Amino acid sequence: MALNEQDIKKIAEEALKQLGHSASPEAVEQVVRETVSRLQEGGPSEPVKEWKNVQSGQKPASTERIIITAFGKNRVGILAKMTEALAKNNCDILDLTQKLMQDFFTIMLLVDISNSPHSFEQIKNDLIQTGEALDLKVIVQHEEIFNAMHRI
User: Fold this and answer.
1) Domains recognised in the chain with CATH numbers
2) How many whole angstroms separate alpha carbon 144 and alpha carbon 149?
Protein backbone atom coordinates (compact mmCIF):
# COMPACT_ATOMS: atom_id res chain seq x y z
CA MET A 1 0.00 0.00 0.00
CA ALA A 2 1.49 3.35 -1.04
CA LEU A 3 1.05 6.15 1.49
CA ASN A 4 1.35 9.81 0.72
CA GLU A 5 2.27 12.64 3.08
CA GLN A 6 -1.42 13.36 3.80
CA ASP A 7 -1.99 9.72 4.83
CA ILE A 8 0.97 9.88 7.20
CA LYS A 9 -0.31 13.14 8.70
CA LYS A 10 -3.68 11.46 9.33
CA ILE A 11 -1.91 8.56 11.03
CA ALA A 12 0.05 11.01 13.19
CA GLU A 13 -3.19 12.82 14.14
CA GLU A 14 -4.76 9.48 15.11
CA ALA A 15 -1.67 8.64 17.16
CA LEU A 16 -2.02 11.95 19.02
CA LYS A 17 -5.68 11.16 19.73
CA GLN A 18 -4.77 7.73 21.07
CA LEU A 19 -1.70 8.82 23.05
CA GLY A 20 -3.00 12.20 24.17
CA HIS A 21 -1.59 15.62 23.37
CA SER A 22 1.07 15.24 26.07
CA ALA A 23 2.65 12.38 24.09
CA SER A 24 6.34 12.69 23.39
CA PRO A 25 7.35 13.25 19.76
CA GLU A 26 9.30 9.97 19.90
CA ALA A 27 6.15 8.08 20.97
CA VAL A 28 4.08 9.61 18.16
CA GLU A 29 6.80 8.81 15.62
CA GLN A 30 7.02 5.22 16.84
CA VAL A 31 3.25 4.79 16.47
CA VAL A 32 3.35 6.28 12.97
CA ARG A 33 6.24 4.01 11.97
CA GLU A 34 4.47 0.91 13.30
CA THR A 35 1.20 1.86 11.61
CA VAL A 36 2.87 2.63 8.27
CA SER A 37 4.75 -0.67 8.44
CA ARG A 38 1.55 -2.60 9.28
CA LEU A 39 -0.35 -0.92 6.44
CA GLN A 40 2.43 -1.63 3.95
CA GLU A 41 2.39 -5.29 4.95
CA GLY A 42 -1.36 -5.44 4.32
CA GLY A 43 -2.26 -5.56 8.01
CA PRO A 44 -5.34 -4.05 9.65
CA SER A 45 -5.78 -0.31 9.38
CA GLU A 46 -7.66 0.19 12.65
CA PRO A 47 -5.90 1.96 15.55
CA VAL A 48 -3.69 -0.14 17.78
CA LYS A 49 -5.04 -0.49 21.33
CA GLU A 50 -1.55 -0.81 22.82
CA TRP A 51 -0.36 2.62 21.64
CA LYS A 52 -0.35 3.93 25.19
CA ASN A 53 2.44 1.43 25.94
CA VAL A 54 4.66 3.41 23.58
CA GLN A 55 4.94 6.08 26.29
CA SER A 56 7.14 3.73 28.34
CA GLY A 57 10.19 5.67 27.20
CA GLN A 58 12.06 2.77 25.65
CA LYS A 59 14.08 3.75 22.60
CA PRO A 60 12.82 1.56 19.74
CA ALA A 61 15.55 -0.15 17.70
CA SER A 62 14.11 1.25 14.46
CA THR A 63 14.90 4.86 15.43
CA GLU A 64 18.66 4.52 15.19
CA ARG A 65 19.16 6.41 11.90
CA ILE A 66 18.13 9.94 11.02
CA ILE A 67 18.14 12.03 7.87
CA ILE A 68 19.30 15.64 8.14
CA THR A 69 18.63 18.11 5.35
CA ALA A 70 19.94 21.67 5.51
CA PHE A 71 19.93 24.47 2.98
CA GLY A 72 20.59 28.18 2.77
CA LYS A 73 23.05 30.79 1.56
CA ASN A 74 26.59 29.44 1.36
CA ARG A 75 29.18 30.62 3.88
CA VAL A 76 32.43 29.36 5.34
CA GLY A 77 32.13 26.74 8.08
CA ILE A 78 28.70 25.23 7.43
CA LEU A 79 29.94 21.65 7.10
CA ALA A 80 32.35 22.09 10.02
CA LYS A 81 29.66 23.42 12.38
CA MET A 82 27.03 20.83 11.41
CA THR A 83 29.45 17.92 11.82
CA GLU A 84 30.74 19.42 15.07
CA ALA A 85 27.18 19.38 16.44
CA LEU A 86 26.87 15.70 15.46
CA ALA A 87 30.24 14.82 17.03
CA LYS A 88 29.24 16.62 20.25
CA ASN A 89 26.18 14.33 20.38
CA ASN A 90 28.30 11.22 19.62
CA CYS A 91 26.52 10.61 16.30
CA ASP A 92 28.10 8.71 13.41
CA ILE A 93 27.78 10.09 9.88
CA LEU A 94 27.04 7.16 7.57
CA ASP A 95 26.64 9.12 4.35
CA LEU A 96 26.78 12.74 3.31
CA THR A 97 26.16 14.70 0.16
CA GLN A 98 26.43 18.43 -0.35
CA LYS A 99 25.93 20.67 -3.32
CA LEU A 100 26.66 24.28 -4.13
CA MET A 101 24.43 25.96 -6.68
CA GLN A 102 25.93 29.40 -7.15
CA ASP A 103 25.50 30.98 -3.68
CA PHE A 104 23.04 28.34 -2.44
CA PHE A 105 24.27 25.49 -0.21
CA THR A 106 22.47 22.17 0.39
CA ILE A 107 23.52 19.19 2.46
CA MET A 108 21.92 15.86 3.27
CA LEU A 109 23.28 13.46 5.88
CA LEU A 110 22.40 9.93 6.95
CA VAL A 111 23.37 9.62 10.62
CA ASP A 112 23.43 6.78 13.16
CA ILE A 113 22.34 8.06 16.59
CA SER A 114 22.41 4.68 18.37
CA ASN A 115 25.53 5.54 20.42
CA SER A 116 24.38 8.99 21.43
CA PRO A 117 23.57 9.52 25.10
CA HIS A 118 21.05 12.14 23.98
CA SER A 119 17.47 11.70 22.80
CA PHE A 120 16.38 12.25 19.21
CA GLU A 121 14.69 15.50 20.28
CA GLN A 122 17.86 16.82 21.94
CA ILE A 123 19.93 16.00 18.86
CA LYS A 124 17.30 17.53 16.57
CA ASN A 125 17.10 20.74 18.63
CA ASP A 126 20.90 21.06 18.72
CA LEU A 127 21.11 20.69 14.92
CA ILE A 128 18.30 23.19 14.34
CA GLN A 129 19.97 25.73 16.65
CA THR A 130 23.30 25.19 14.89
CA GLY A 131 21.56 25.73 11.54
CA GLU A 132 19.81 28.88 12.74
CA ALA A 133 23.18 30.35 13.77
CA LEU A 134 24.32 29.74 10.17
CA ASP A 135 21.07 31.06 8.61
CA LEU A 136 20.17 27.54 7.41
CA LYS A 137 16.84 25.77 7.31
CA VAL A 138 17.44 22.37 8.95
CA ILE A 139 15.06 19.40 8.81
CA VAL A 140 15.75 16.34 10.98
CA GLN A 141 13.66 13.17 10.61
CA HIS A 142 13.87 9.52 11.50
CA GLU A 143 14.88 7.54 8.43
CA GLU A 144 11.60 5.58 8.40
CA ILE A 145 9.50 8.75 8.38
CA PHE A 146 11.65 10.26 5.64
CA ASN A 147 11.33 7.11 3.51
CA ALA A 148 7.57 6.87 4.06
CA MET A 149 7.03 10.53 3.14
CA HIS A 150 9.17 10.33 0.00
CA ARG A 151 7.91 7.05 -1.42
CA ILE A 152 6.34 7.33 -4.88
Assistant:
1) 5-57 (no CATH), 62-149 (3.30.70.260)
2) 9
Question: What sign does the dihedral 110-102-133-137 (CA atoms) show?
Answer: negative
Would you state the torsion angle of the CA atoms of residues 115, 126, 83, 26, taken in this order, to the nearest 10 degrees? 40
Phi, psi of 24 (to 5 degrees): -70, 150
Confidence (pLDDT) at 43: 54
In this prediction, residues 93-97 reach a mean pLDDT of 94
Contact of 125 with 133, CB cutoff 8 Å: no
For the CA atoms of 146, 3, 9, 69, what is the dihedral angle to 10 degrees? 20
The count of other CB atoms within 10 Å of the CB of residue 35 is: 26
Which has more pLDDT, 75 or 1?
A: 75
Q: Whole-prediction pTM value?
A: 0.58
Query: CA–CA separation, 85 vs 40, rounded Å?
Result: 35
Residue type, 106: T
